[in-house]
Write a structure and sequence with these properties.
Strand content: 25-35%
Strand order of the largest sheet: 6-7-8-3-9-10
Helix content: 25-40%
Number of domains: 1
Radius of gyration: 17 Å
Distance between the termini: 20 Å
Number of helices: 7
Shape: globular
CATH topology: Rossmann fold
Number of strands: 10
CATH superfamily: P-loop containing nucleotide triphosphate hydrolases
Largest sheet: 6 strands, mixed
CATH class: Alpha Beta
Order of helices and strands: EEEHEEHEHHHEHEHEE
């Protein structure tokens, strides 16, 4: 295994609600190498998405540690976590999460502009061309098909060249053929950039395309 990009030790996350304490993640240990592709499968409620959110610093663990790209996420405040995500993490969700009032080009340029990159528009154009949307840059999300919106989301996630890409059911809202096209693009971009990929999916065929497959149940890695 190459030098690890991700090191998780004894990660647990619990929430307290009306029914008492709910254990969502239970003492997870996981090491992920730089450039590795890893899939996580499991039933709904297993904790897969929560694990991704902990990797992105969007969920605070109750116990344990998360190290990503040399950063101990537990030691960072909210501003530090935001900077960490801008510098190191791309996320692709099932439901696209594009800004509806922005064009495809503006959506892709947004993370670069947040980071103060001067040539954000040029890089965003190149990213959209790479996913086959060179003719759709000026369109708003509502004018694009679901597959086109997810390709915009892919371009936005990859354009900062993140060390870690987290993909949470990226084909969940797409038909089979469109989903396969999106995943071909995702894996092609991953190979081109050498990005570490963690993919959550219910699709066993997609999971098997990754170099390593893990399963989760009841908050634990099996």
């Amino acid at each position: 295994m190459q030098d690890p990009l991700v090191q998780i030790r004894k990660l647990s996350l619990s929430l307290v609600g009306g029914a008492g304490e709910v254990n969502i993640l239970r003492e997870i240990d996981l090491t992920i190498a730089a450039g590795e592709t890893l899939s996580i499968v499991g039933p709904s409620g297993a904790g897969k998405t929560t694990l991704l959110m902990a990797l992105a610093g969007l969920e605070r663990p109750s116990a344990g540690s998360v190290m990503v790209a040399g950063a101990d996420l537990g030691r960072l405040d909210e501003d530090g976590l935001a900077r960490f995500r801008r510098q190191h993490v791309g996320i692709v969700f099932q439901s696209f999460h594009l800004v509806p009032s922005m064009t495809a080009l503006e959506n892709v340029a947004l993370p670069l502009e947040f980071s103060g990159i001067a040539d954000a528009t040029r890089r965003a154009r190149e990213a959209l061309e790479a996913v086959g949307l060179g003719e759709r840059m000026g369109h708003f999300p509502g004018e694009l098909s679901g597959g086109e919106q997810q390709r915009v989301a892919l371009a936005r996630a990859f354009v900062p060249r993140p060390a870690l890409l987290l993909a949470d059911e990226p084909t969940g809202n797409l038909d089979r053929d469109t989903g396969e096209l999106v995943m071909e693009l995702l894996f092609a971009l991953q190979r081109e950039q050498g990005t570490t990929l963690v993919l959550v999916t219910h699709d066993e065929r997609l999971a098997e395309r990754c170099g390593r497959q893990l399963a989760m149940a009841d908050g634990r890695l099996l």
